[in-house]
Write a structure and sequence with these properties.
Length: 792
């Protein structure tokens, strides 16, 4: 048998698959019932650069699932596209000195080549790119639907401004007070902005977590971000303005202790108050200075600074006038941006009061009973909470309320490279949506697209000035563009019907394929893309454009991939591009390696030595299977056949049930080792066929070639092997059972038992039950094949 030559083999099979359209999937016929469909999706790449090993992990994992499910008889949709609008691509273009379109399209071509070189099973008929008018026409169409429903609106608001990128950022794009993209310290500015009313869906976004099978930590991140808290909204009267200002508090029981009133510097009332303020200059100067500081700095600052407006609000419980201050530690992000300060029972309010000589009044004593609280004195705080809200309610000064940390999603950007917002401003008619039949509003070419603080499109007079669609008078287009997270909030729907030029998609087609059965992507998208997509689908569901409420049924987060240390071979010039590595070692070696190096949900380091090691395994597989190919067929039993069945059982369970991808490779390696001892032994052929069949999702090219050398055809269409139960040897071991780290029992267990089964076995032990004595097990730590430790 000739030498293993990955390059030739891989090119050969990639040609065959493309000629046969092996991984393209037809849409159903109208009336087809869903059932055997499976939608496999990985987050799409930004074409701001080329693919790196992180992408290789993500897409190879998706590929293994695709092959596995296909061979289990499911019809698998596995599309791919490009998130080609937005800051990453535009910044790359500025750096490289070209037009974003040219840079993006060159990158898309290169990424497409890389993807094909890696042999991923993709339906290339469904490719979409966010910057193509055929796609963003429908992004604009969806915007219009949101606008009609009042779910997209424009208002002046304090926004996060990145001075480096010269654009507004969503709250989700600010990490510890810095721009997520460039790390610059974010400033607060007041600007007219477009928002999506995601807050109207805050409760639904929380509640529908129960519909989806996502990692608990991701749900927790979203829950925390949405930040629901129950309390009361109380009205504080400001007589000078003839206004009741609502304040949200989780502690209405402390209202008798509210001795001053605070506004965030960004609060819309501040401007009006300043006009009436005897301290106008001082307050104005204070506001100017704090707005330039970043949020993180403001909150963390040791000194609680503020400016007294000289005006008073009325405490709704005591009817006392209390001074109104503007203070930097109050943020617009939380509640209403106005708070009742209770220095007796809030650490930060106390610091502020002490610094500025404001009164401090205790209203709850050490036993949690109200004092100094009028007729409520003597009541326990919890009871008082409800009674006070009721009492204020009767006086029209309060009501029970729920508050969310989540803010509406600001999505307009003062940048060039994005989807134009289909809105026209007319002096006579106001804000006029572009009529549907005039879509798409095409992004025009401009000479200078670099950010200058005002949108580059505003300088393009020819594009900007249009007749008003409503009255025909002179009008101007909206020059802001959409955040690219709008583009990616619905791309998974377009894949299903990518060539439709009458609608974004047919409802029956999305209802057939969606929700996505398995989504794979980074956990860093938990509060951005993953929340936005859920919001979009909820709105589309209400608009009856889709028949489901959640986009992604199951979610998996891959770990981060780093390149290991300085071990890269210098003579080769530190090869890091996956396609170049594939040229050197074979795509199969790169694919196998990235899943072998560690559990896919953990961070990992990759080294070129590691890829070399896997390439050696493939050469060994090639040689041993080649030898076994001449062994006779058959062989009913024997150790090799048993080993093959065991391997089938392990690999199937790992991929299918546990969603673990490194251990199946180790299992196949073990089988190949056994086979290598005597490739002519009884059952050798079966073992060889099994090894090849099981490694196929990972290394489809070499597997296909070996399969044909074993005298068979079209492995990619072969049913996934099923283990013969009667051949499975039930290995047993002594399971050590601990309670809080102390050994309490030893029992016999089967090697085939799952972690859940081992835990159940541990809990069932009489000795353990005596120890537990009815206490709840808080955690169970399982070391497979060894022990279970129950923590109480
Ligand atoms: Zn920035
Ligand atoms: Zn008009």
């Amino acid at each position: 048998m000739e030498k293993y030559d990955p390059k030739t083999i891989e090119a050969k099979w990639q040609r065959v698959w493309e000629d046969e359209r092996a991984f393209y999937v037809d849409n159903p016929e109208p009336g087809d019932e869903p059932g055997d469909d499976f939608y496999m999706l990985e987050m799409l790449p930004y074409p701001s650069g080329h693919l790196h090993m992180g992408h290789v992990l993500n897409y190879t994992l998706g590929d293994v699932v695709t092959h596995f499910k296909r061979r289990q008889g499911l019809q698998v949709l596995r599309p791919m596209g490009y998130d080609s609008f937005g800051l990453p691509a535009e910044n790359a273009a500025i750096k490289e000195g070209g037009h974003p379109r040219e840079i993006v399209e060159a990158n898309i071509a290169r990424i497409g080549t890389q993807m094909r070189r890696l042999g991923w099973a993709i339906d290339w008929d469904r490719v979409i790119a966010a910057h193509e008018p055929g796609y963003y026409r429908w992004t604009q169409w969806l915007f219009l639907k949101f606008f009609e429903k009042g779910l997209a609106y424009r208002k002046e608001a304090p926004v996060n401004w990145c001075p480096n990128d010269q654009t507004v950022l969503a709250n989700e794009q600010v990490i510890n007070g810095r721009c997520e993209r460039c790390g610059a310290v974010v400033e607060s500015r007041k600007m007219e902005q477009w928002f999506f009313r995601i807050t109207a869906y805050a409760d639904a976004l929380l509640k529908d977590h129960e519909l989806i099978d996502w990692p608990e930590r991701t749900k927790a991140i979203q829950r925390n971000w949405i930040g629901r808290s129950e309390g009361a909204e109380l009205l504080f009267r400001i007589d000078e303005l003839d206004l009741d200002v609502p304040v949200f508090t989780t502690r209405p029981d402390t209202v008798f202790g509210a001795t001053f009133f605070l506004l965030a510097p960004e609060h819309p009332l501040v401007d009006t108050l300043v006009e009436r303020s005897p301290n106008a200059d001082e307050v104005r100067e204070y506001v100017r200075k704090t707005m330039a500081k970043r949020g993180e700095e403001r909150v963390a600052a040791g000194e609680k600074t503020g400016a007294f407006t000289g005006l008073y609000a009325v405490n709704p419980a005591t009817d006392e006038p209390i001074p109104i201050w503007v203070a930097d530690y109050v943020l617009m992000d939380y509640g209403t941006g106005a708070i009742m300060a209770v220095p007796g029972h809030d650490e930060r309010d106390r610091e502020f009061a002490e610094r500025h000589g404001l009164p401090i009044r205790e209203v709850v004593d050490e036993d949690g009973v109200l004092v100094n609280s009028g007729q409520f004195s003597g009541l326990p705080a919890e009871e008082a909470q409800q009674a006070i809200v009721e009492w204020l309610g009767e006086r029209g000064r309060g009501r029970p309320a729920v508050s969310f940390r989540l803010r509406d999603w600001g999505f307009s950007r003062q940048r060039y490279w994005g989807c134009p917002i289909p809105i026209i401003y007319c002096d006579r008619c106001g804000v006029v949506p572009v009529p549907e039949e005039d879509l798409p509003v095409v992004l025009p070419d401009v000479e200078d697209y670099r950010p200058k603080g005002k949108p580059p499109l505003a300088s393009n007079e020819e594009w900007l000035n249009v007749p008003c669609p409503s009255c025909g008078g002179p009008a101007v287009r909206e020059a802001d563009t959409m955040d690219t997270f709008v583009d990616s909030s619905w791309y998974f729907l377009r894949y299903v019907d990518p060539h439709n030029d009458q609608a974004p998609f047919e409802r029956w087609l999305v209802d057939y394929w969606l929700p996505v059965d398995q989504y794979v992507g980074g956990i860093d998208h938990a509060t951005g893309h993953l929340l936005y997509s859920r919001f979009f689908v909820k709105v589309l569901n209400e608009l009856e454009l889709v028949g489901f409420r959640e986009p992604f049924q199951r979610l998996f987060h891959q770990g981060w991939v780093r390149q290991g240390g300085s071990k890269m071979s210098k003579s080769r010039g530190n090869v890091t591009a996956p396609d170049e590595l594939a040229d050197m070692y074979g795509a199969d070696a790169v694919r196998l390696y990235i899943l072998f190096v560690g559990p896919a949900d953990q961070d990992m380091d990759w080294t070129e030595e590691g890829v070399e090691g896997i390439a050696r395994f493939l050469r060994r597989l090639w040689r041993i299977v080649g030898e076994a190919a001449s062994a006779p067929e058959g062989g009913e039993g024997g150790p090799l056949v048993r080993k093959a069945h065991e391997t089938i059982a392990r690999v199937t369970d790992d991929i299918g049930r546990r969603f673990v991808f490194n251990t199946p490779i180790a299992a196949v390696m073990e089988l190949v080792n056994e086979l290598g001892r005597d490739p002519a032994a009884p059952g050798a052929r079966f073992a060889a066929e099994t090894a090849v069949s099981l490694i196929q999702p990972y290394a489809p090219h070499v597997a296909e070639e070996l399969w044909s050398r074993l005298g068979h055809e079209r492995l990619w269409e072969q049913p996934w092997p099923v283990a013969d139960e009667s051949q499975l040897e039930r290995e047993t071991f002594e399971l050590v059972i601990q309670v809080n780290g102390k050994v309490r029992d030893r029992v016999e267990a089967s090697a085939a038992e799952s972690e859940e089964e081992l835990i159940a076995r541990a809990k069932a032990s009489e000795k353990v039950q005596a120890q537990l004595d009815g206490q709840e097990v808080r955690q169970a730590i399982v070391v497979p094949g060894k022990l279970v430790n129950l923590v109480v």
